[in-house]
Specification:
The protein has eleven helices and eleven strands. By secondary structure, it is of the alpha/beta class. It folds into two domains: about 30 residues, no CATH class; about 250 residues, Rossmann fold. The protein starts with 14 loop residues before the first strand and ends in a 7-residue tail after the last helix. Bound molecules: adenosine-5'-triphosphate and magnesium ion. Magnesium ion binds next to α1.
Length: about 300
Protein backbone atom coordinates (compact mmCIF):
# COMPACT_ATOMS: atom_id res chain seq x y z
CA UNK A 1 0.00 0.00 0.00
CA UNK A 2 1.34 3.41 -0.97
CA UNK A 3 1.36 5.98 1.70
CA UNK A 4 1.45 9.59 0.86
CA UNK A 5 3.11 11.90 3.31
CA UNK A 6 2.34 15.55 3.13
CA UNK A 7 4.94 17.56 4.89
CA UNK A 8 4.21 21.16 5.38
CA UNK A 9 7.09 23.38 6.36
CA UNK A 10 6.36 26.92 7.23
CA UNK A 11 9.37 29.15 6.90
CA UNK A 12 9.13 32.31 8.82
CA UNK A 13 12.15 34.45 8.33
CA UNK A 14 12.11 38.14 8.97
CA UNK A 15 13.97 40.13 6.39
CA UNK A 16 15.16 43.60 7.12
CA UNK A 17 15.88 46.11 4.40
CA UNK A 18 19.55 46.86 4.76
CA UNK A 19 20.76 48.77 1.78
CA UNK A 20 19.69 50.41 -1.46
CA UNK A 21 22.58 50.81 -3.84
CA UNK A 22 22.08 52.01 -7.40
CA UNK A 23 19.49 49.53 -8.74
CA UNK A 24 19.99 46.95 -6.01
CA UNK A 25 17.96 46.49 -2.85
CA UNK A 26 19.46 44.22 -0.20
CA UNK A 27 17.42 42.46 2.49
CA UNK A 28 19.05 40.45 5.26
CA UNK A 29 17.38 37.94 7.56
CA UNK A 30 17.66 38.80 11.23
CA UNK A 31 17.52 35.05 12.09
CA UNK A 32 19.94 33.28 9.82
CA UNK A 33 21.90 35.93 8.03
CA UNK A 34 20.45 35.02 4.63
CA UNK A 35 20.96 37.84 2.14
CA UNK A 36 18.48 38.56 -0.61
CA UNK A 37 19.34 40.91 -3.41
CA UNK A 38 16.63 42.32 -5.66
CA UNK A 39 17.81 44.04 -8.78
CA UNK A 40 15.43 46.74 -9.94
CA UNK A 41 16.97 47.24 -13.36
CA UNK A 42 14.04 46.19 -15.52
CA UNK A 43 15.55 46.64 -18.86
CA UNK A 44 18.90 47.10 -20.44
CA UNK A 45 19.11 47.56 -24.14
CA UNK A 46 21.66 48.52 -26.71
CA UNK A 47 19.93 50.14 -29.66
CA UNK A 48 21.62 51.09 -32.92
CA UNK A 49 20.10 53.77 -35.07
CA UNK A 50 21.01 52.55 -38.50
CA UNK A 51 20.30 52.99 -42.21
CA UNK A 52 22.97 52.98 -44.88
CA UNK A 53 21.19 55.87 -46.59
CA UNK A 54 22.58 59.27 -45.71
CA UNK A 55 20.61 62.17 -44.28
CA UNK A 56 17.56 60.22 -43.11
CA UNK A 57 17.57 61.39 -39.49
CA UNK A 58 19.80 58.81 -37.76
CA UNK A 59 21.86 61.32 -35.79
CA UNK A 60 18.89 63.55 -35.00
CA UNK A 61 17.03 60.49 -33.71
CA UNK A 62 19.97 59.09 -31.71
CA UNK A 63 20.65 62.44 -30.01
CA UNK A 64 17.06 63.46 -29.27
CA UNK A 65 15.82 60.01 -28.31
CA UNK A 66 18.74 59.75 -25.89
CA UNK A 67 17.73 63.05 -24.29
CA UNK A 68 14.05 62.07 -24.10
CA UNK A 69 14.89 58.84 -22.29
CA UNK A 70 16.69 60.83 -19.58
CA UNK A 71 13.69 63.11 -18.90
CA UNK A 72 11.78 62.67 -15.61
CA UNK A 73 8.89 60.65 -17.13
CA UNK A 74 11.38 57.91 -17.99
CA UNK A 75 14.45 58.79 -15.89
CA UNK A 76 16.69 56.41 -17.77
CA UNK A 77 20.43 56.50 -17.64
CA UNK A 78 21.59 56.75 -21.24
CA UNK A 79 24.90 56.45 -23.00
CA UNK A 80 25.04 57.80 -26.55
CA UNK A 81 27.81 56.39 -28.71
CA UNK A 82 28.78 58.41 -31.78
CA UNK A 83 30.03 55.80 -34.22
CA UNK A 84 30.19 58.02 -37.27
CA UNK A 85 33.45 59.55 -38.58
CA UNK A 86 31.41 62.64 -39.52
CA UNK A 87 31.00 63.07 -35.75
CA UNK A 88 27.63 64.76 -36.24
CA UNK A 89 26.20 63.61 -32.91
CA UNK A 90 29.30 64.91 -31.14
CA UNK A 91 29.21 68.24 -32.97
CA UNK A 92 25.45 68.46 -32.39
CA UNK A 93 26.12 68.54 -28.65
CA UNK A 94 29.60 69.84 -28.10
CA UNK A 95 32.91 70.87 -29.67
CA UNK A 96 35.37 68.83 -31.66
CA UNK A 97 37.28 66.30 -29.57
CA UNK A 98 40.79 64.96 -30.07
CA UNK A 99 41.15 61.45 -31.59
CA UNK A 100 42.65 60.06 -28.38
CA UNK A 101 39.54 61.17 -26.47
CA UNK A 102 37.14 59.60 -28.98
CA UNK A 103 35.65 56.27 -30.02
CA UNK A 104 38.61 55.87 -32.44
CA UNK A 105 40.99 55.35 -29.51
CA UNK A 106 38.56 52.83 -27.99
CA UNK A 107 38.26 50.76 -31.17
CA UNK A 108 42.05 50.85 -31.60
CA UNK A 109 42.23 49.58 -28.00
CA UNK A 110 44.31 52.59 -26.97
CA UNK A 111 41.74 53.88 -24.46
CA UNK A 112 39.03 52.44 -22.28
CA UNK A 113 35.51 53.43 -23.24
CA UNK A 114 34.76 54.76 -19.74
CA UNK A 115 37.71 57.17 -20.04
CA UNK A 116 36.38 58.95 -23.13
CA UNK A 117 32.82 59.53 -21.89
CA UNK A 118 31.78 63.17 -21.51
CA UNK A 119 28.50 64.51 -20.13
CA UNK A 120 26.68 66.90 -22.43
CA UNK A 121 23.13 68.18 -22.04
CA UNK A 122 22.39 65.47 -19.45
CA UNK A 123 23.55 62.64 -21.71
CA UNK A 124 26.73 60.62 -21.37
CA UNK A 125 28.39 60.71 -24.76
CA UNK A 126 31.20 58.68 -26.31
CA UNK A 127 32.36 61.24 -28.87
CA UNK A 128 33.66 60.63 -32.35
CA UNK A 129 36.32 62.21 -34.50
CA UNK A 130 37.15 62.16 -38.22
CA UNK A 131 40.05 59.81 -37.35
CA UNK A 132 37.41 57.05 -37.13
CA UNK A 133 37.42 56.88 -40.94
CA UNK A 134 40.95 55.37 -40.77
CA UNK A 135 40.12 52.93 -37.99
CA UNK A 136 38.32 50.48 -40.27
CA UNK A 137 41.57 49.74 -42.13
CA UNK A 138 43.56 49.53 -38.89
CA UNK A 139 41.30 46.92 -37.32
CA UNK A 140 40.51 45.00 -40.49
CA UNK A 141 43.09 42.25 -39.88
CA UNK A 142 42.22 41.78 -36.23
CA UNK A 143 40.65 38.54 -35.07
CA UNK A 144 37.19 39.28 -33.70
CA UNK A 145 37.16 42.65 -35.44
CA UNK A 146 33.33 42.77 -35.44
CA UNK A 147 33.19 42.50 -31.65
CA UNK A 148 35.57 45.26 -30.55
CA UNK A 149 32.76 47.68 -29.62
CA UNK A 150 30.76 44.95 -27.90
CA UNK A 151 33.76 44.08 -25.73
CA UNK A 152 34.48 47.74 -24.98
CA UNK A 153 30.87 48.31 -23.83
CA UNK A 154 31.01 45.41 -21.34
CA UNK A 155 32.88 47.64 -18.89
CA UNK A 156 30.14 50.26 -18.67
CA UNK A 157 26.87 48.50 -19.50
CA UNK A 158 25.89 48.02 -15.84
CA UNK A 159 25.82 51.79 -15.46
CA UNK A 160 23.12 52.38 -18.06
CA UNK A 161 19.53 51.54 -18.94
CA UNK A 162 19.99 52.26 -22.62
CA UNK A 163 22.98 52.58 -24.88
CA UNK A 164 22.11 54.30 -28.15
CA UNK A 165 24.53 54.02 -31.07
CA UNK A 166 24.51 56.52 -33.93
CA UNK A 167 25.74 54.65 -37.02
CA UNK A 168 27.41 56.04 -40.15
CA UNK A 169 25.63 55.95 -43.55
CA UNK A 170 27.39 52.76 -44.67
CA UNK A 171 27.39 49.09 -43.77
CA UNK A 172 31.14 48.63 -43.30
CA UNK A 173 33.06 47.20 -40.38
CA UNK A 174 32.20 50.12 -38.09
CA UNK A 175 28.46 49.54 -38.56
CA UNK A 176 28.99 45.79 -38.15
CA UNK A 177 30.53 46.53 -34.75
CA UNK A 178 27.36 48.43 -33.83
CA UNK A 179 25.10 45.61 -35.02
CA UNK A 180 27.18 42.96 -33.24
CA UNK A 181 26.86 44.89 -29.97
CA UNK A 182 23.14 45.70 -30.25
CA UNK A 183 19.94 44.07 -29.05
CA UNK A 184 17.68 46.15 -31.27
CA UNK A 185 17.84 48.51 -34.22
CA UNK A 186 15.80 51.55 -35.10
CA UNK A 187 15.68 52.32 -38.82
CA UNK A 188 14.77 55.94 -39.59
CA UNK A 189 13.13 56.41 -42.97
CA UNK A 190 12.86 59.85 -44.49
CA UNK A 191 9.45 60.56 -46.01
CA UNK A 192 10.62 61.43 -49.51
CA UNK A 193 10.25 59.98 -52.98
CA UNK A 194 13.01 57.35 -52.60
CA UNK A 195 12.08 56.48 -49.02
CA UNK A 196 12.39 52.71 -49.25
CA UNK A 197 15.07 52.47 -51.96
CA UNK A 198 17.99 50.44 -50.66
CA UNK A 199 15.92 48.96 -47.85
CA UNK A 200 16.10 45.45 -49.28
CA UNK A 201 19.93 45.64 -49.37
CA UNK A 202 19.84 46.75 -45.80
CA UNK A 203 17.55 43.88 -44.82
CA UNK A 204 19.87 41.38 -46.54
CA UNK A 205 22.78 42.68 -44.48
CA UNK A 206 20.63 42.59 -41.36
CA UNK A 207 19.73 38.92 -42.00
CA UNK A 208 23.37 37.97 -42.57
CA UNK A 209 24.45 39.76 -39.39
CA UNK A 210 21.67 38.05 -37.46
CA UNK A 211 22.62 34.58 -38.65
CA UNK A 212 26.41 34.93 -38.51
CA UNK A 213 27.29 37.55 -35.90
CA UNK A 214 24.42 38.35 -33.54
CA UNK A 215 21.47 35.96 -33.24
CA UNK A 216 19.67 38.16 -30.75
CA UNK A 217 19.49 41.18 -33.01
CA UNK A 218 15.95 42.36 -33.79
CA UNK A 219 14.37 45.28 -35.60
CA UNK A 220 12.69 47.40 -32.95
CA UNK A 221 10.98 49.53 -35.53
CA UNK A 222 11.07 51.70 -38.61
CA UNK A 223 10.71 55.37 -37.80
CA UNK A 224 9.09 57.76 -40.26
CA UNK A 225 11.00 61.05 -40.22
CA UNK A 226 10.09 64.36 -41.83
CA UNK A 227 6.30 64.20 -41.76
CA UNK A 228 4.79 67.45 -42.96
CA UNK A 229 1.02 67.65 -43.05
CA UNK A 230 1.14 70.50 -45.56
CA UNK A 231 3.31 68.45 -47.92
CA UNK A 232 1.08 65.87 -49.56
CA UNK A 233 4.05 63.79 -50.74
CA UNK A 234 5.15 63.01 -47.17
CA UNK A 235 1.58 61.99 -46.20
CA UNK A 236 1.22 59.90 -49.32
CA UNK A 237 4.53 58.10 -48.85
CA UNK A 238 3.71 57.40 -45.24
CA UNK A 239 0.21 56.08 -45.97
CA UNK A 240 0.71 54.30 -49.28
CA UNK A 241 4.34 53.12 -49.20
CA UNK A 242 5.61 52.77 -45.64
CA UNK A 243 2.51 51.54 -43.83
CA UNK A 244 1.58 48.83 -46.37
CA UNK A 245 5.18 47.63 -46.78
CA UNK A 246 6.43 47.81 -43.21
CA UNK A 247 3.12 47.48 -41.39
CA UNK A 248 3.31 46.71 -37.70
CA UNK A 249 7.07 47.18 -37.67
CA UNK A 250 6.52 50.95 -37.95
CA UNK A 251 6.66 52.98 -34.77
CA UNK A 252 3.34 54.68 -34.09
CA UNK A 253 5.29 57.84 -33.43
CA UNK A 254 6.10 59.86 -36.52
CA UNK A 255 8.75 62.60 -36.42
CA UNK A 256 7.44 65.80 -37.98
CA UNK A 257 9.61 68.32 -39.80
CA UNK A 258 10.67 71.04 -37.46
CA UNK A 259 12.92 74.02 -38.13
CA UNK A 260 13.77 74.13 -34.42
CA UNK A 261 16.00 71.09 -34.94
CA UNK A 262 18.57 73.01 -36.97
CA UNK A 263 18.46 75.92 -34.52
CA UNK A 264 19.03 73.49 -31.65
CA UNK A 265 22.01 71.94 -33.48
CA UNK A 266 23.51 75.39 -34.04
CA UNK A 267 23.24 76.03 -30.29
CA UNK A 268 24.82 72.60 -29.51
CA UNK A 269 21.66 71.51 -27.72
CA UNK A 270 19.09 68.80 -27.99
CA UNK A 271 15.79 70.08 -29.29
CA UNK A 272 14.15 69.53 -25.88
CA UNK A 273 16.70 71.73 -24.10
CA UNK A 274 16.49 74.34 -26.85
CA UNK A 275 12.69 74.46 -27.07
CA UNK A 276 10.86 71.96 -24.96
CA UNK A 277 7.47 72.75 -26.50
CA UNK A 278 8.60 72.29 -30.09
CA UNK A 279 7.06 69.67 -32.40
CA UNK A 280 10.18 67.52 -32.52
CA UNK A 281 10.72 67.65 -28.75
CA UNK A 282 7.17 66.28 -28.38
CA UNK A 283 7.70 63.63 -31.06
CA UNK A 284 10.93 62.33 -29.57
CA UNK A 285 9.26 62.20 -26.14
CA UNK A 286 6.47 60.12 -27.73
CA UNK A 287 9.08 57.82 -29.24
CA UNK A 288 10.78 57.38 -25.86
CA UNK A 289 7.37 56.62 -24.31
CA UNK A 290 6.66 54.07 -27.00
CA UNK A 291 10.01 52.41 -26.38
CA UNK A 292 9.78 52.40 -22.59
CA UNK A 293 6.07 51.57 -22.58
CA UNK A 294 6.62 47.84 -22.42
CA UNK A 295 5.70 46.95 -25.98
CA UNK A 296 9.29 46.08 -26.84
CA UNK A 297 9.67 43.71 -23.91
CA UNK A 298 12.60 42.48 -21.95
CA UNK A 299 15.80 41.32 -23.55
N1 LIG B 1 12.38 66.04 -38.31
C1 LIG B 1 13.22 66.85 -38.94
N2 LIG B 1 12.81 68.08 -39.32
C2 LIG B 1 13.65 68.92 -39.96
N3 LIG B 1 14.94 68.62 -40.25
C3 LIG B 1 15.39 67.41 -39.91
C4 LIG B 1 14.56 66.45 -39.24
N4 LIG B 1 15.30 65.34 -38.99
C5 LIG B 1 16.51 65.60 -39.50
N5 LIG B 1 16.57 66.82 -40.05
C6 LIG B 1 17.71 67.44 -40.70
O1 LIG B 1 18.12 66.60 -41.78
C7 LIG B 1 19.53 66.58 -41.86
C8 LIG B 1 20.00 65.13 -41.79
O2 LIG B 1 19.66 64.61 -40.53
P1 LIG B 1 20.66 63.65 -39.75
O3 LIG B 1 22.01 64.26 -39.67
O4 LIG B 1 20.00 63.29 -38.49
O5 LIG B 1 20.67 62.43 -40.76
P2 LIG B 1 21.65 61.18 -40.75
O6 LIG B 1 20.89 60.02 -41.25
O7 LIG B 1 22.31 61.04 -39.44
O8 LIG B 1 22.73 61.64 -41.83
P3 LIG B 1 24.13 60.88 -42.13
O9 LIG B 1 23.75 59.67 -42.90
O10 LIG B 1 24.91 61.87 -42.94
O11 LIG B 1 24.76 60.57 -40.83
C9 LIG B 1 20.07 67.43 -40.70
O12 LIG B 1 20.43 68.69 -41.18
C10 LIG B 1 18.90 67.53 -39.77
O13 LIG B 1 18.89 68.76 -39.08
MG1 LIG C 1 24.35 60.95 -38.93
Amino acid sequence: MNKKYHIKITLSINFVLTRIYKNDIYFISSHCGLLININLRRLFMIISVVNQKGGVGKTTTAVNLSKSLTLPFASKKVLLVDLDPQANATLHLTERVEPEKSISAVLMEKALLKDVIINVDGIDLVPSNISLSGVELEIFMKIGREYILKDALKDVKDEYDYIIIDCPPSLGLISLNALAASDRIIVPILLEKFAVDGLSDFLNTFSRVKSKINNGLEIMGYLAVGYNKRLSVSKQIYESVLKPQLGNKMFKTVIRTDTKLKEAQAMCKTVYTYKNNSKCAADYIDLAKEITGGKYGKI
